[in-house]
Amino acid sequence: MRFRLAMFAPVLVVSAALWACADAPEPVGPADQTPDAAVRRQDPLPGWFAKASPEVLALPGTVFADHDEANNRLVLGVENAAAIPGVRNALTRLGIPSSAFAIEVIEPIHQVVTLRARWRPTQGGIQIHFGQFLCTLGFNADDGSERSFITASHCTGKQGGVEGTQYFQPTSTVDATVIATEVEDPQYFRGGACPRGRKCRYSDAARARYSSSVGSTRGAVAKTSGPNNGSIDVTGTFTITSQDNTTKNFAIGKVVNKVGRTTGWTQGKVTRTCVNTNVSGTNITQLCQTFVQDPGGAVVVGGGDSGSNVFGITSGDNAQMVGILWGGNSSGTLFVFSPLKQVRDELGAITATS
Amino acid sequence: MHASVFAACAAVVAVTSACRPEPAEMRGAAAAPAAPSNDTTVMATAPDSLGFELVLPRQVRAGEPVAITLRVQNRAGRTLDLYLRGRTITFDVVVARAGGEVVWRRLEDEIIPAIVHLRPLAPGERLEAEAAWDQRTKQGKRLEPGEYVARGFLLVEGDPLETPPAAFRVVKQ
Q: pTM to 2 decimals?
C-alpha cells in the first residue's frame, strides 16, 4: 500500500492540535488554498479505499487491496477470475463507480516458511532435533496403525538399538513438545556379509512413533523452490503416490531427489549402486548403498540432511519414495542413501503414500 | 617442536579421514545438553571469536606416523554454539608439497554422516580432535623427504573453516 503523505499530513496536524487544545484559539497556520489542495480534499478515493479494503479482503479468493495513487484508482487483486464478480458487487454496493477501480488476477501471496520452521502437521523434509543434534524428518509412514516418521539410524541417541530418543520440531527451544519417540532401530550385526572387525546394517534408518497430540501428514514432503538452488524456503508439497519396495540395485543414471533441512531440494543421478560403504570415523559399514551425484557438481547434501527422504518424481509434484539419505562426501557433491527395500527389510512394512 | 598456527574464524566446519581413517578423537569438557538458538539457523560467530589451530611436528622422520591435532578455542566473552558436521568432530587435513601439489587429503573418498552436532563452547573452552597419518599418499606411496605444507579444515554447517598453512619437513630415517 502506498500513501501520499502530503495528502494527509495537514489534516492530521490540524486534528491533533484541536484534540489536544480544545479551548485554544483557532489554528494560526495558513490554510492550504492552492487549487491542487482543493482537488485533493475532494478526492473520494481515500474514503472509498477505507471502506472497500475490509469488505473486499473478507471475500474468498481475494489477495490484496491497494489505493494506487500513481494511477488514481483502487486496485483489487484476486486469485482467479471466479472471485471477480463478488468483488465487483461489493464495490458497487459501496457506491464506488467502476471507473474508480480495477480488478487483477494474481497468484496468492504465501508466507515464506523454511524447512527449519515449526510445522504442524509435520511433513517430510523438515528439521528435527534430539539431544545435541539436528537431522531431517525423512517421511511420515504408518506401521500398522502407528503414525510414525522415518529418519536415519544415526539420528537417534545411539546408532543401533532402541533407547527411546525423543524428538522435537524444529527444536526444543522453539517448541518443547516431544513430537515423537524412537521405537525401531535394529542392532548392527557382525559376521556374514559384514567385514571383519566391523558392524553392519543394510539401512541407516530408524522409526519414531508420533505423540498423540502432534499432527502429521502422511504422503507429504515439503517442496522448496527448485532443485540444487540452495533454497530452504518451502513453496509447495511433493505428494508420495507410490513407494519402491523392491529395488536395491538402482539403474545408473536414474534421477533421484531429496529434501533436507540444510540443502533443501537437491537432485542428482545414481552413480553407484549396491555399494558396501564404510562410515567415516566409525567401525560401521552400510551394505548395498546407493551413491548419487549431480553431473554439474552441485552441492547435494550438507550436515543436517541426514534422514532425508529420497524419491523419484513420477509426474508434476507426484513422487515415488525410494530411500533414506544418511551421508555424503566432505564437499557435499555426493550423497548416499539406503534403498527403501532395505529400510523395510529392517524396520518392517511401512506405508508412506498419501 | 610443533608448528602451531591460529586463525580467527567466523564459523565452524568439519573434516574426515582418507586412506586409513581412524576415528577422530574429541577431547575437552563433556558437552552439556544443547538446544539450538530460537531462529534455528547457523550461528555465524563474530570475527576473531574462534581460535582455529592445526598442530603437527615441524619435523618428522620419513615413514613415521604423524600426529595431527586440530584445536578450536572460544576467544569470545560469551558461549558460542558450534554447528559441527558428524556425530563426532570431523576435520580434514590437506598436505601439499611446497610447490602446491596435493599429496594427501584425509577425507578424500570418505562418506560422512550428514548430521549436525550442536556444541556450545564456553568462553575460553577448547576442543581438540586428533588423527594420525602414516605418511602414505592416496596412491599408497611413502612420502619423500622434503618440505610440505598442511592445512586443516573443520567441517561445520556451511563452508568449512580453514586453518592457515602449517609447514613441516620430512627427513630421512
A: 0.76
